[in-house]
């Protein structure tokens, strides 16, 4: 009995020491991993998985203690109600931080819950300006917002594409409406003419009525505020109706999946989009290296925002290391004070609202069945 007791004590002691040396820090990722844009949500989730695996392999020490980073993944299905339910679940679980959500429509309502719980939230892709305009100290954004995104595309439609009759469609989501409104505003400021304003939903599959109206207006540019899952079928129906207009959209359509969904309905230099982010010069080396190891691990190309999720996780952990604590109250001020963090998406600094400073946009077109960069704009 005595030996057994000693053995048990030794086991308990050694287990306790191991636990003390390998405390668990939980970071969550949230995105739509089910539904029409699950390919984008999974892309983002994979960025988080890769970051956590690399961090744990390299070893992380916070406050003098070795820690294991645990990734908690949740699906918000791009639905605001599910997004807030997930946010409450994560708040109750007392996670140390959240990287997500993907859509503005889920990110914005969830941000209130994270703010109340004091949990830092880094969104890799939500572009509606409202997200960081609510006064929440816990909200951070790694990409340029719709004011820059829609504004740049609106000016491009008039000045570069020489659009004379421009039609605007949005999917009634927070993202779709936001980017379409900014686009429309920029078109008018550039002296362009919007001949039609139409609406659909993020689950629609038949666009014949609104496209027939647009054809009647002789639109030479069609802008869609929405996601690739809707844009692809829309492009196919445009072709079947004989609409040869240029097709534009924000980062929601700027994916490799759009090229697959649109297929032969997409002519060279017909589709123009802007990804809310971009790297130039020497920074391209790091991005290309990331894309190579991402494909090697997951067997698929990066869709859009996996690199920003990857940076978001690493940035959050770097703030914890610098603060010497994974307690949100202690590392949040360090995260907010981030200046020139070198990520694969470029140098990251935040302004007082939590927006990225000097955020870039990458204008792209589809050529030869592939997304091709046109220019990086800041």
TrEMBL record:
Coiled coil: none annotated. The keyword Transport does not apply. Keywords: Signal. Residues 25-369 form the Leucine-binding protein domain. InterPro entries: Leu-bd (IPR028081), Peripla_BP_I (IPR028082). The keyword Signal applies. It holds the Pfam family Peripla_BP_6. Residues 1-20 form the signal peptide. Belongs to the leucine-binding protein family. This is Branched-chain amino acid ABC transporter substrate-binding protein. It comes from Rhodoferax aquaticus.
């Amino acid at each position: 009995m005595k030996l057994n007791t000693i053995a048990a004590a030794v086991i308990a002691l050694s287990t306790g020491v191991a636990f003390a040396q390998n405390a668990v820090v939980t970071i969550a990722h949230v995105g739509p991993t089910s539904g029409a844009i699950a390919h984008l949500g999974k892309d983002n989730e994979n960025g988080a998985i890769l970051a956590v695996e690399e961090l744990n392999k390299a070893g992380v020490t916070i406050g003098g203690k070795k820690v294991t980073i645990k990734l908690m993944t949740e699906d918000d299905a791009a639905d605001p109600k599910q997004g807030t339910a997930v946010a409450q679940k994560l708040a109750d679980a007392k996670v140390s931080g959240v990287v997500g959500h993907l859509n503005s429509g889920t990110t914005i309502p969830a941000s209130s819950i994270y703010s109340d719980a004091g949990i830092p939230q880094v969104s890799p892709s939500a572009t509606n300006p409202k997200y960081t305009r609510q006064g929440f100290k816990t909200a951070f954004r790694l990409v340029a917002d719709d004011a820059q995104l829609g504004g740049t595309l609106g000016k491009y439609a008039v000045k570069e594409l020489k659009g004379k009759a421009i039609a605007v469609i949005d999917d009634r989501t927070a993202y779709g409406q936001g980017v379409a409104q900014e686009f429309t505003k920029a078109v008018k400021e550039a002296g362009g003419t919007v001949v039609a304003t139409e609406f659909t939903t993020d689950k629609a599959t038949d666009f014949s009525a609104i496209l027939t109206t647009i054809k009647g207006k002789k639109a030479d540019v069609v802008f869609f505020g929405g996601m690739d899952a809707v844009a692809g079928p829309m492009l196919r129906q445009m072709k079947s109706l004989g609409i040869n207009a240029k097709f534009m959209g924000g980062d929601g359509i700027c994916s490799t999946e759009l090229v697959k969904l649109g297929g032969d309905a997409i002519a060279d230099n017909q589709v123009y989009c802007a990804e809310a982010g971009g790297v130039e010069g020497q920074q391209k080396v790091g991005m290309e290296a990331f894309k190579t190891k991402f494909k090697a691990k997951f067997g698929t190309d990066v869709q859009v925002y996996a690199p920003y999720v990857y940076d978001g996780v690493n940035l959050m952990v770097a703030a914890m290391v610098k603060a010497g604590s994974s307690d949100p109250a202690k590392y949040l001020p360090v995260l907010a004070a981030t200046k020139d963090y070198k990520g694969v998406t470029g140098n990251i600094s935040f302004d007082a609202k939590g927006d990225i400073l000097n955020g870039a946009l990458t204008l792209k077109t589809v050529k030869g069945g592939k997304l091709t960069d046109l220019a990086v704009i800041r």
